[in-house]
Amino acid sequence: MTEVLDDRATRQLAARADSVLRRLDAPPIESGDLSARTPITGGELTTLRSTALPEVDAAIGRAAAAFHAWRGVPAPVRAGTVRRLGQLLTEHKSDLAELVTLEAGKIPAEAAGEVQEMIDICEFAVGLSRQLYGYTMPSERPGHRLMETWHPLGVVGVISAFNFPVAVWAWNTAIALVCGDTVVWKPSETTPLTAVACHTLLRRAAAEAGADPEIHQLILGASDIGARLVDDERVPLVSATGSVRMGRLVAPRVAERLGRCLLELGGNNGAIVTASADLDLAARAIVFAAAGTAGQRCTTLRRLIVHRDVAGPLVDRLERAYRQLRVGNPFDDGVLVGPLIDGKAHTAMRAALDKAVSDGGELVCGGERVDGFGDDAHYVRPALVRMPAQTAVVREETFAPILYVLTYDDFEHAIRVHNEVPQGLSSSIFTTDQREAERFLAADGSDCGIANVNIGTSGAEIGGAFGGEKQTGGGRESGSDSWKAYMRRATNTVNYSTELPLAQGIEFG
């Protein structure tokens, strides 16, 4: 068993964090009221000073002022800053991944994967800078041209969550910058050091590319800091990632001032396993989707809807795999599941499991706390629970590694069960029957923003737009045409004739 992680271990982790920031040439951290903690030991790495409310206003003002010049820079030239950022992220990939592990508790492989997402989206955005296309349409009036053009929107406020402390910021920021916007970032108060690191690299990239570093602002603190950003009319778009509860607070406030929201909220993701599925392939995909990042991904698999004929063999496979998962310090070799982010997450997990059992569920394995890491660190074994029905607790999202297993006989019933939860982010089906696969992807199949066949619910690529429906918020980030959320559209009519015909054949005078 891993040795108890005590205060000495926390000091060692704090030294590692400080060393990373020094290698990145980050400015000295001013001690203050904001605690940067590590879930590995539950201890404090350092403290930072929260941004004061007048400083938030000033940061938004600097971003708004920088926008006036930035929007006039040609998009391919703006891409130079993003290109340089991608290069710096590549140079410091291991440093940033180490910080992600320290602050979010991800195993190094997952942390490195998150940093790679940042590098990938920079490459995507650089190419996008030459593809901000508008349409030209036939005009009904002779001698006229009808077209639409896209223009920078303004200051984009980005509010990110702890579980992907850097990737989601990069999805928004890389695209916003090539679109001609400036950015004000309010990261989770749980992961401020990764934010300081990324802000440092972006400002360096801007300076080295000949751009104004003021195009990016970082504000630190709790919900009052985010609220100030949400309420400011100088911020036409707020992109917020977090819980449904958070989205219910943000959306009305932005709507009240007639601003725009891009929301990425809860995901109570489900997968259907049919009688024809390749169970070995399904089991491998399910284990990572359900247990990866200790169940703390918005795309984590939480509901498994299995055909009754294969439920027993599949659960047996999953139980064997779950019992082999090594839970522990993410920096230790062979560990696949790190800690929960904090004690609140552990309490929520225990409450959900108790409710599931009281509802008639059978705890197949997992759910217990793993000892040996100190009172302030919360390591748990991923839980596998067979449920008689989709009860209220199954319909809720518990941000922890709990996988509920339900059975079905009729495929149409399986789809109804899958869709009856209020969230709609990611989904998948495991089948070798093409009809079942196509039915799942059809308009009356999965109602989620992401629908996969024979892969898990997590691990989205940056080339596709990421986001979901229903209580997930309807936002789309990253690839495809999600850039349109960061720009404003203008419809243009050009009269190159000497006449002045009106549309719809109207005669006036």
From TrEMBL:
Keywords of this entry: NAD, Oxidoreductase
Please report a single Pfam family linked to this protein: Aldedh
Signal peptide range: none
Specify the Aldehyde dehydrogenase domain's residue ranges.
Answer: 34-489
Residues in coiled coil: none
Q: Does the keyword Oxidoreductase apply?
A: yes
Q: What is this protein called?
A: Aldehyde dehydrogenase
Organism of provenance: Nocardia sputorum
Taxonomic lineage from the root: Bacteria, Bacillati, Actinomycetota, Actinomycetes, Mycobacteriales
